User: What shape does this take?
Amino acid sequence: MTDLSDLPPFWSARRTLALWPTLPLLAALALWLYAVRHTDVSRLDDYGLVTALHPSFWAGLAVLTTGFWFTVRDRRRPGGWSAAYVVGLLVMERATQAVLYPTPLYAWAWKHDGVIDHLLTAGGLQTADQIGDMAVYDQWPGFFAAQAALVRLLGVDSAAMYMAWWPLASSLLLLFPLLLIYRTFTEDRRLIWTAVWLFFVANWVGQDYFSPQSVAFALHLGVLAVVLRRYGRSGAGGGSVRRGQAVWTIVLTVLVMAIVISHQLTPAMLVVSLLALVLLRRHRDWVPVATTVVIFLAWCATAALPFLSAALPEMIRAVGDVGGNVERGYGATPTGAGAIATSWAARLLSGSVLLLAAAGLWRQPVLRYRAMPLLVITAAPLPMFVASSYGSEMIFRVLMFMLPGVALFAAAALSPKVRTLAAAEAAAESRVRRRAEPPARRGIGARFRAGFGIRFWGPLPVLLAGTLAFVPSYSGKDRINYFPPQEVALVGQLFDEAPEGSLVVAANRNYPLAYASYGSIDHYWFLEDDRSHVDEIVRDPAGTLATDMAGVDRPSRAYFLFTQGQLANSEMNGQLTGTQLNSVLESVAASPRFRLVTENSAGAVYELRQPEEAEGTEVEEGGGKR
Assistant: This one.
């Protein structure tokens, strides 16, 4: 008979200690699942998802952050635990909207879906003579061509079938190049994973949605990782080193080409970063910057030349106009308590991370030398303020491109001291001596203060506050960005029924499917017109709009589209108030010049009658009054 008393216990205190990080992680995800099942997004207010979320979501985020902090500060924990917490953070940050909302967010994501659909329908690229201003997307077709191939490969109707999950996918895509960049300058897992956490917490700008920028930014980080890790080293090693450099040059060329053919701004940011490394003597190899510049200029001089030729005068005027480049234009000013609170939350979050980065550089002087190339790359995008406004978005894009470096230096303010190699060896010898000496008797309080004192607990509230602030910064404008199924159905019906050559008039472009059939349907968004003309529309909505929409001959038609997405965007971005826009709708609805086509709870579509139809309607109404 076997004696089981000599076998080690199945469960021990050591095994419990090894697996305890699973408890906060699983508890946080359980709270998240409960929250998404009990959150109602049918009626969003001006605070977006912030006030709609069930309280258990906030509890889950706090538990996740606390568990991550205890895990990442424990040297005995393998890096896999920290990675699991970061993935959990991305799920709670980036997958919540995909689970809660039945339709994809962001009018721009719907626009990109329209570009992909047009590319599939047309079967190739087209010029400005064929599709007007939308030809700019055909001059940078990389992302759209890849997505068109993916749509065909998956056998789905359109990219709308999966683009709601793109923020999560694109964020996961950033994880690997970020780790490579950070590991170039430090082996301290605590510093690395805290930096990764801060990067995703502070990356509220929203460029992770279904867009060329989301992929181009990941490729941008990939190029920087290759350059920092594989270039600028000494020539020792002979032929094997040169062969390795040749291989990495090929990899670099492929990555740069993918960026250049997909996005307008990212190649310029990459050139500025690589050029700064070389000119400031923080890099010794000209191959990366020369390769990038040649490919970038070649594309600008060929495929992108039509757009650049037309935009060049405006681009030249913007150079040096820093105030104008960072100034918000009409329709971009937060209005109302919710929009202002969201704007300030984002500003405070970014400002706090920047201040932490400055504190980290002051507190950890070794990083000023060891990570100087990353510091150069971090500051390199700042001169772009002088170059262009980029549609009033340059300030957000500069912040995003600075963020990888800012996050590492900010993490240094929250992490233990980063030692040089000599200091690390001295510390190791000191630990060996302490083990050889008899242990000193210390009380429980002294041991607690040594292991979990203010240096351990102090950064946790900072990390927790930043993590919670991400939600209003990222999701506080969901009233603008979310389009309910009724709105999607309304707009879809309009474009299904509109004959070729028709005109669609709307307040602004904030509605789904706004670019459906853009090769055959024209658009006019009157809030983007001169302010004087907008005032004319407010004074006499039906009359002014009827005049604007005249001249569309049969079989084409002119339509007026009103949706809740337009109303939300106008109210929260300082265009027209809800009262003013509703009066426009009421004027159109009461005018005999317009005929109701369809309506539902999300909006309405009216058609401008032809002159003979309008006259007949007026005669009938006059006869009835007699």
About this structure: Strands lie at 503-506, 522-525, 558-563, 594-600, 603-608. Confidence is low (pLDDT under 50) at residues 420-426, 440-454, 619-626.
